[in-house]
Amino acid sequence: MNKPTEAELEILSLLWQLKEASVRQIHERLAAVKDTGYTTTLKIMQIMHAKGMVERDETSRTHIYRPLVKQGDTQKSLLKNLMTTAFGGSTSTLVMQALGQEKPSKAEIDEIRAFLDNLDNDNA
Question: pTM for this structure?
């Protein structure tokens, strides 16, 4: 899988939410949170199409883009790369750093605890 750039990942995140969108729809959402030009968004999405990250429906005047890469697969790949390069392959160091950045809510802690309990039961 091609590792998406930061800009590509922003667009993929929007496409995963929306399922499909035109360049204009993606650009409007990006422009609401950062200074970016329409032609820049268009060019990045064209590059993503050439890389096989998105498909483009050209049957109407307005081209519609859909993600071809799965969100879970992309997250796993990026996380594995991050864990290897920034945390020396240590899962515990990665998790401790992530949990130390912001105080998780009680609901998040309960969800993490349930996940860990499930891992323990699977390994027993």
Answer: 0.81
